[in-house]
Amino acid sequence: MQTPRTTRRQLLTAIGMVGGTAALYQAMTTMGHAAETQYKGPPDLSGARAGASVLVLGAGLAGMLAAYELSKAGYKVRILEYQNRAGGRNWSLYGGDTYTELGGATQKVQFASGHYLNPGPWRIPYHHRTLLHYCKAFGVQLEPFIQFNHNCFVHSADAFGGRPVRYREAAADFEGNVAELLAKAVNQKALDSELSQEDREKLMEALRGWGMLDKDMRYTTNLLSSEHRGYERPPGGGVNGAPIPSQVFGFHDVLNSQVWKNMAFFMNHEMQTTMFQPVGGMGMIGKAFARQVQQMITFNAKVTRINQDKAGVTVTYADTGTGAVSEAKADFCVCAIPLGVLNQIPNNMAPQKRAAIAAVPYSNSVKIGLQMARRFWETDEYIYGGHSFTSQDIALISYPNYHLFEDGPGVLLGAFATGIGAYRLAGMTPEQRIEAALAQGSVFHPDSYRKEFQTGASVAWNRVPWTLGCCARWNEETRKEHYQTLVAVDDRIVLAGEHASYVGCWMEGALLSSLDAITRLHKRALEA
Amino acid sequence: MARMGVMIAILLALGAVPSLAQGGDTPGSASNRTPPPVTGEEVYTQVCQACHMADAKGGSGAATIPALAKNPKLAEPGYPIGMILQGRGAMPALSDLLKPAQIAAVVTYVRTHFGNNYKKPVSEADVKLMMGP
């Protein structure tokens, strides 16, 4: 005989009735529902031994957070950084900056004051609680990042004769047609075995309301569909106040546009609103972290060897300016160097660890910033932030979320390329990239794009001298074979960074990895 | 005919199974529709050059992207083919991006340019042989 058991749902209902929604939420979170993050607050590193020391390699977010928390816990911390700048991939390019990529091409950035390009991270999901926690703690001012804009464009070479259409129109037509087809299936009794009569009726009501179907369950040109896709003549006042509906697209073109990819993209947990960005550029986060650990950082230090033995860790590094070689010693090491670079640094970590480091390739990505003299997307097209998607190499253009409504210039993101598109753009000279971005982006704004262009800058992550790529690219096989080995403490060394997380390629992943790494390293240090 | 709408609805509902995201920020755009590179030179320019540079001399910063120019390792065609198929370190495997014919074309191209002079062309069959079953 089984004893009757309370189901989880019954239990939650009871908790909600007794304790209100706060208690319910707490219970749900505890039970594994509704959890948005693995962040549990700053780490507990109490009891550090006096004089114990840690060497941190890399002054990106992972390295700097490790340094900050370990130093706060009482460890003696030093950071070695290859660049002359802290922040790593958290980075903004401003007017006056100079950037030299691998191969030697140098760009002098000439954006107007207050404008910038974020070559790496550029948007923060609301549930990246670790990052948001430290932004608040370190005084980084955040503002909304306009992620979802129905009025942006969708462009595909295969649809609508190559003409861009508004996201709003294509998405409404996709949903409307799907609703109509599903309603037909119900009416043709194709779903009778799947759904009860009651549920079929509820579904039909949902399809009508969601898909803007008429009384005959058709999605067609009328004021209903226009309520979602927009009007030929919008509602107004007075004599001509009555709206005129817009013409729906043929479903064939809607399918060819692959607008469903854009729609599905916005459904991704990490792409859901609300999103944020720092006021003044993403690089403000790296700068804020750096203020906390500034005195610990040795810049221009190229690590050339990492050795550990019974006595501690010895890291050999060369000054990138003078070439002078030095050694740094500590009891322990947090290595936050990207794997593609670390793979080339001689070290005596365990063979399995070295195999794991070598097993993870890096993604490519190209970002291009284009400064326009006039914010024509706002004044002429009523686009305020958001992304226009294209099947071309640039993949999208994204409109700035700051200085809205100003008369002056604006810096567009003129490309966020990945895959073959990013390889093609990365292989070009910076001048060729700008030309390609202008040619492709003109599809959205043919009258203004070239005319208003003033200056641009690009970053091809394959050619970034200190990463040789954008982010670690795991797959199911490499995760299974190497992930646990990669994150495990190897005697005195632990790796940290987005590559040592399941939140890959996000700043949150770098921070969560760092907190977990130092917590385990601290435990190891106490056992020593 | 009656089943037609149902078929479409089901196909729409299922669609292609979305691959589990490898993680990270993505543009969220439709598939790239630019015609793919065909000749060895086109493949080199549109893919390899991103890292190995237009002059195939690679580059060096915190770490090094190796030169393909005057590279004696190219004497053995299996070396560059394997590198493209499997990747190494930061370099990803390109077997999803490039078809065997494209790989054969670019390996032949690199082995006969940039100061390399290994005249025997690499065939699509050579590449397929290394890809295994």
Name some characteristics of this structure:
heterodimer; A: 528 residues; de novo design (two linked rop proteins); 3 domains; five-stranded parallel sheet; four-stranded mixed sheet; 17 helices; 35% helix; disordered N terminus; B: mainly alpha; two-stranded antiparallel sheet; 5 helices; 2 strands; 3% strand
Strand portion of chain B? under 5%
Could you tell me the mean pLDDT of chain A? 94
The number of domains of chain B = 1
Please name the CATH topology of the largest domain in chain A.
Polyamine Oxidase, Chain A, domain 2
CATH class descriptor name of chain B: Mainly Alpha
Distance between the termini of chain A: 52 Å
What's the architecture of chain B in CATH terms? Orthogonal Bundle
Average predicted local confidence, pLDDT of chain B: 88
Describe this structure in words.
Chain A is 35% helix and 20% strand. Chain A has 528 residues and is α+β, with helices and mostly antiparallel strands. Chain A has three domains: 53-87 and 284-360 and 472-527, FAD/NAD(P)-binding domain, CATH 3.50.50.60; 93-151 and 273-281 and 363-463, Polyamine Oxidase, Chain A, domain 2, CATH 3.90.660; 168-250, de novo design (two linked rop proteins) (Up-down Bundle). In chain A, the strands form eight sheets. Chain A has a five-stranded parallel β-sheet with strand order 14-2-1-18-24, with helices on one face. Chain A has a four-stranded mixed β-sheet with strand order 10-9-20-21. With 133 residues, chain B is mainly alpha-helical. Chain B has one domain: Cytochrome Bc1 Complex, Chain D, domain 2. Chain B has helices at residues 2-14, 40-52, 78-86, 100-111, 124-131; strands spanning 59-60, 64-65. The relative contact order of chain B is 0.13. Chains A and B meet through helix 4, helix 8, helix 10, strand 20 and helix 13 of A and helix 1, helix 2, strand 1 and strand 2 of B.
